[in-house]
Amino acid sequence: MTGADVDLTTAGQQAFPLLIAVAATPEERIRLAELVDDVAPLLLVSSLDELRKLLVPGPPPEPPEPAIAEQSSDGDVLTIDRMRSVAQWRGREVQLTELEHDLLTRLMTSPLRVWTYDALHQTVWHNRHLRGTANVHSVVKRLRRKLDDLGTTVTIDAVRGIGFRLTDHQRPAITSLRAG
């Protein structure tokens, strides 16, 4: 855990202290919140990357490139639009949360590869210390529902006790998947 005091000034108001803390686990964040209760406003984040996203504005978004429909011979291409965070299939699209986007992108990088829970925690949540499977299962459940809503034949299959893989039940090779 790390912490820093920051004085913030709002327009026309006096500065006030803000305590910023980085704590990797929910247990540490709860303990820290209890320790500094009523001391100052508290901003708790799980990683320095999360803190940077909040404090440092990202580069201005580039203008979107014109959408070019790259389709396989039968038009079945699952794509992810990074700029808008949507999954697209046969002209239909569905909005993705940040975790859904990151998980689907990761699964699409190596279709048919079994991604372990540890690998997914490290690459999607950026935290190798997370244990358990409930958070991964929750995001997979939402993604399965959204892929089903799109009508895609692509699904996320569980490999019991190990993790997940992306599979296209119509075309097992999944050659037309790409993360854009």
TrEMBL record:
Example GO biological process: phosphorelay signal transduction system
Source organism (scientific name): Kribbella antiqua
Record key words, sorted: DNA-binding
Protein name stated in the entry: Transcriptional regulator
InterPro entries: OmpR/PhoB-type_DNA-bd, Sig_transdc_resp-reg_C-effctor, WH-like_DNA-bd_sf
Known DNA-binding region: 69-168
Gene3D superfamilies in UniProt: Winged helix-like DNA-binding domain superfamily/Winged helix DNA-binding domain
SUPFAM superfamilies tied to this protein: C-terminal effector domain of the bipartite response regulators
Molecular-function GO terms, alphabetical: DNA binding
Residue span, OmpR/PhoB-type domain: 69-168
